[in-house]
Write a structure and sequence with these properties.
mainly alpha, elongated, inositol hexakisphosphate binding, 629 residues, Serine Threonine Protein Phosphatase 5, Tetratricopeptide repeat, 8 strands, GLE1-like_sf
Amino acid sequence: MVLGAVKLLVGSAERVNGVGIEPEPDWSFDALVAELNALETKLTSPPLFDKTISRGKNEEIKRGKPFILRADEYEMEDTESEDEDEKALVVGKRFICDELYLSDSDNSDVVSSFEVQPYLMEEVGEVEGALFEFTHEHQLRVKDEIRNKISALETALVNESLNSTSSLLRVEKYKESRQELDRKLDTQYQRRIAEALDNHLTAVQRDRELRSQIEERKIRSDAQYEEAKKKIALQEEKQRQEKAKAEAAAKLKAEEAKQAALESERKAAMEAKIRAATEAEKRAEKEATEAAARLTDNASSPSNAETKESGIVYRAAASTLNLEHGRLQKLKELYEQNQMIRSSSRQDYTRHESHISRLIRQIRGVRDNVRSKATDLTKLLNDPQCPQSISIEIFAKKIVSYCENPGNAPFASGYVIVLVTSQVPHAMDILLAELHRACLYTVPKHLVYRKSMGTDAVESGFLILYRQATFQSKEAYFRTIGYKEDDGKMESTDDYLKRLESYMKVYGALVQTEIQNVQNLHGLQEGWAWLARFLNALPANQYTAVSLNAFLQMAGFALFRKYKSQFVKLLKVISENFLVDLKARNVPELTRTVVEIQTYIEDKKFLKEPEGRSLQSNLLSNQAFNNYN
């Protein structure tokens, strides 16, 4: 039997010289070589020698599944048969070879093994030899490529490892830098928190100290008030005792005179007194007639005419009544003009009025607020869509209505009035006329309540008008001087005095307002004249006392700065005359007002600027917010 060469084709199930090849999915060229080496080893020596393949850096190479070779056995006859295709198919043997160690040094042994053992195959021709050589060269080339790829992979793995290590180092370094930055930021944040807490605690401590000082001042003020009250009570008690003694002495003397006088002399004395009283009455009537005539000629005031007809007695200076008459006359003319405008046009000015009213209610003691409100009000007064006379009327009424509120800002209102009237001068007289109608003590003048006719004289140019008062009741007198009546119920005296004080504070703040490059049409000279006329013409009672106290609290500081010693002289007149007359009335309701005026003069509070006179630059809420932040 002659064994011919076997031709192997990869990836095909074709038959080569009667030998079938079983395809293997995991087949590789190395596996083929391993199978051949294993076959050679089994043929040469029975025992198998197993080696562990190691390449390069002792790295084991993964082997594929064993290569399986199947061959058909057939018999060849000595004589050739005509039908060469008919061959007996026998079952081929399966060779399973374990993994063998392959290296470059083993190639020669493999080749030599194939060469020295002729029983594997017969001598082949040139084609088969060339194929064998080509296969051998291809095997070597594949091995080199595999080695190169392994080396490249090892280099790439080393580079990748180095890059990973470098990246990890950079990440660690970045992490450390971020941690250091976080520590610094945390330190800064803690420092800010500490500073903010310290500022907050400082502000709280300052606020507590301020409140403590306020409480201490209040306690001292209350103590001074109680002490002054006790002194006044002692003085009043002493005066009552002296008065009682004087009355007792006078009574004793009168009794002695009565007992010593004769009946005839008493009759003669009585007749003489009657004659003297009659002559005095005639002289008083004559002087009253002359005074009334002078008042009519000099003042020509409609209010005086009304007073003459109704029999009401006013105490006021002649020049004051002239000024009041002029302002009231302008107000009357303005009302008549506006009435004609409303009747002819029938235009609704309600929205315009509400806009002015809202701006006035929003007045606060802040510089920016005062400037903005004054600018807006001036624009509304000059608005061509609404006649200026109507705008002035609305402005004057709303300002006076705003003055009634005890919580108003008098100094801020004074600033707004001066700024607006400097642009619209006619509005000042209208505003003052409305203020005179609401509070007669802004004139100043006083309405006298008398049950019988009295006489007064003209002194130093101050005219005191006297007529017989014909009030039906005390309520009628209250209505005349400005008490409000709601549903037939008259307001209390305390409420009236609070409104009176509010009016006088706004008036006092108005006369003392001084703005750079802005003319105050009713400035300090008018305030000085008001104080002089007040002290010369008005009596001392609870109404005049409240008016004077409110005026001094607002305008005293500015009057002293301008008039110095002259203002101090007026304060001396108040202390020696006005306060003495108030104390002599012995009215418990006047005690607090008397103490306040007396404290104002004795403590020289006119040297200190009143609170609120200088407008604030920022709101207190914003300032507190800045302090706490």
